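Working notes for the structural subgroup meeting. M.R. asked for a predicted model of this chain before we commit to crystallization trials. I am recording the input and output together here so anyone reviewing the notebook later can reproduce the run.

Input as submitted:
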Amino acid sequence: MKRRDFIKKTSAASAPLLLNGLPLFASESTGNQLFDMMGQSLTNCGKVLVIIQQNGGNDGLNMILPIDKYAELNAVRSNIMVAQSSILPLNGSTATGMHPAMTALQNLYNNGKMTIVQGVSYPNPNFSHFRATDIWFSGSASNEYLDTGWLGRELDITYPNYPQAYPLNNIVMADPLAVQIGSTLPFSLQGPSINMGYNVSDPASLLQIISETTDPAPNNDYGRELTFLRLMKDQSNIYREKIQIAYNAQLTLSSQYPVANTNKLADQLKIVARLIGGGLKTPIYIVNHPNSHDTHENQVSGVNNTAGTQANNLGILSNAIGAFQNDIDLMGKGSKVSGMTFSEFGRRIKSNDSIGTDHGTAAPVLFFGAAVQGGILGTSPMLPATITVSTQLPMQFDFRQLYATVMQDWLCLTPTESQTVLGSSFTKVPIFNSPTLPLEGVSLTGQYYQGQSHLTCKAEQNQKYKWYALEFSTDDVRFFEVKRSGTSNAPQQETYSYTHTAAAPKMFYRIAAQDQQGKIDYSNTVMLRASDKLQLIRVYPNPVQNYTIHVELFEVNAKPVDITIYDLIGAKVYYNRFTGGNRRIDFRVPPSFSKETHYILEVSYGDTKTREQIIFR
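Returned structure, recorded in token form:
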């Protein structure tokens, strides 16, 4: 029997660590290949993503309520609709409100720490709980059947010898890549060869078998798999110690957590907060709502539509996230931690006669944290004139657009890497805050080849600065000075070149410049990888000024160059073909492009195609 089949069929691995009575699974991977890839990237990115799964299919229409469509909805779901007067208002929106059980999330939203994405689904949705969950975990289309998660696919390539060669005692892989808190391991943690998380139906008996057996395993299929299980147990114990050290290093700071054991989601998030605050570098955490959202009946109490099963579920979600965010902020980690919720599908527009709702299509996804832009993406759902028991909500955003956005704007992946994971290119949506604008007149570009990083700094206004310094980082957080250059004080453009020898999964560079008054400013940050593949293009300035764009090619090309610009819903808004042979292409787009809005610029020539995100200011 192959190892992957053995692990999948037995679901055997080392026993979980218990923190406050909750099982905690640690791994170099999230086990879900989707979350694995994000986690591997995050290890060197300095960011943390917390994923909350709402099992069962949440009724988004009764969570994020379209006030502007209240009359139409009340006509077809009056037996479950909350009174309009009880809907919680949201700052800046007269069309949308929240369920009255969600006061903590209302406060987060009104303080700019929540982004609501409306109408998230995918084409031809599936209404089986198991299949729909697999689609979300794998990042597949509804007609694709993948046996890996969307994060784990890259992890298996990056770490081909897992688990034998891990954990590594270095800055990259010293801590577990992912932590899953809960009673079961999701498919999202399934790697191409094994499930990289730890789970077992009877942990005590498995530990007894493995721990008490010290003789060499027999030289057969069973013996080889037993050796493998012993290795997993030993590695789990290594992570167990690291997790316990981090957990004990940080006390809970927030007083907003519900009483222990009264809100199991809050109990899980409290552990996550302590691990983050205690210095664990794990980038991916997965927690699970303790209750089912599959409300076919008795969704409300029948007497008071603001009470009942869903109200209880939403109250658990709201209070848990509110306390967690408060804790993270008090620990000083707010800028590095973001979270998202998801459920495998939504519910139908029309309620049923059992005071409930049946399986439906699109539903809102919530992003929370200090780094989100805040606000609402999308509109209230478009409701047809005639609504029957089969009528579904239209999709506004494909869930893979959210994955692409998370990977590129939060987890430091490139558009090419994101496309590789998802199997196609999906336009991003503006969920996260844009990074601080770099200093004016100084731009940095770079390439990695022959074992070295080659950086070029172009300075337009030398007279403004006393010196420039190249700074280096492996995590985009802690930068170290590599070389300092004095300026010529000349008003014309100057070019400064640097060479730096380094080899890390990701290498970050920036220019620090001291102006004549002694203030330190920073250029854009360039991320390079230890690869012989060169960066293909540079687009500048970005943000685009005065609708003028410059594209610089980093490889000689004699073929025509096609430049296309797409908006965030994939519509083509600009196209032009330029003669090949020039390394730099300068062009101006019409002023119809919206400012403070993200677009995707695609450059294509020969067999090469690459994309960059741009924004107009």
